Structures are given as C-alpha cells and as structure tokens.
C-alpha cells in the first residue's frame, strides 16, 4: 500500500515566548530542533501508522533568526520511503501579521517505524505525483547514499 505526500503532511505553529529565546535575543536553536523533531515524528507516525524513532538528522540549515512574539510555522512532509524508514523534510517559517512567510530553517530527518518491541517494521510506500516530489525523492536517495558512506567510513 502506498500513501500520498498530502496524507501525512503536518503543520504546527508556535508563538515565540521568553522561554524560547536564547541569550542573544533569538529563538534558541535547541528549542527549534525539538519542534522540528516533534513535527517530523508526527509526519512519520501519520504515514506509517506506527510509532517512529529518529535515526538521523542529515541536514539542518539555519537561514535566519526569529525573535520574541513572532509566529513560527513548521511544515513537515515525507519525501522518501525505504522498507522501514522515511525521510521527512521540515521547513520552518516566520509568519508576519499579513500572513506572509519567510523561511528560517530547513531540515531533513530519517525516521524508522517500530513495533511495540522497538523493532523496525515496514512502512507504506510513497506515491510521488509532481515534478517537485520527484526531485525531492531523488535528493533523498542521494542523501541516503551519503549517509551510508559516512557510516561506513565511521563519521
């Protein structure tokens, strides 16, 4: 069985409060990483119908800062599926009062679906429908090969 990208796409919003801000007045990167991991986990669970664990974060790019009282929007979607794993892309934006969004972060996470004994289990395939989705799939294949190479080489 396969699923479409839209079936598991997830959007979360957060208002930046004082507890989310670091010493230089910007969104604390560790807080953003926690939100990214949570968003990816929800996407993976929706796609697989199973609990998931984060196996790797292959890419995390900070493009701009975010500040107190700004609205943060995270959008996650599956870009690739293997036998038991899924790559999830999470884009993070700051949303202005007029609804415009500017990107501040992009991350790619590899998740594995697990059973009640924490053993990997198969996931549904991904129906790739658009040229953009095909390009994301191809990029994920390249990232997966790089991840294998790094693991083999010990870094």
Automatic annotation (TrEMBL):
GO biological process: acyl-CoA metabolic process
Keyword Hydrolase: yes
CDD domains: BFIT_BACH (cd03442)
Positions of the HotDog ACOT-type domain: 6-117
GO cellular component: cytoplasm
Molecular function terms from GO: long-chain fatty acyl-CoA hydrolase activity
Pfam families (alphabetical): 4HBT (PF03061)
Keyword tags: Hydrolase
Family: Belongs to the acyl coenzyme A hydrolase family.
PANTHER family: ACYL COENZYME A THIOESTER HYDROLASE
Protein name: Acyl-CoA hydrolase
The species this protein was found in: Cuneatibacter caecimuris
């Amino acid at each position: 069985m396969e699923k479409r990208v839209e079936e598991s796409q997830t959007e979360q919003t957060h208002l930046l409060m004082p507890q989310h801000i670091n010493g230089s007045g910007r969104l604390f990167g560790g807080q953003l990483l926690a939100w990214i991991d949570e968003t990816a986990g929800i996407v993976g669970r929706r796609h697989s119908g199973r609990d998931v664990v984060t196996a790797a974060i292959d890419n995390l790019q900070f493009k701009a800062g975010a500040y107190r009282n700004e609205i943060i929007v995270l959008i996650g979607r599956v870009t690739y599926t293997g036998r038991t794993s899924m790559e999830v892309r999470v884009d993070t934006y700051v949303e202005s009062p007029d609804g415009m969004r500017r990107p501040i972060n992009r991350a790619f996470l590899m998740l594995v679906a697990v059973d009640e004994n924490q053993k990997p289990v198969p996931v549904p395939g991904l129906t790739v429908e658009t040229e953009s989705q095909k390009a994301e799939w191809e990029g994920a294949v390249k990232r997966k090969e790089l991840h294998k190479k790094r693991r083999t080489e010990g870094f």
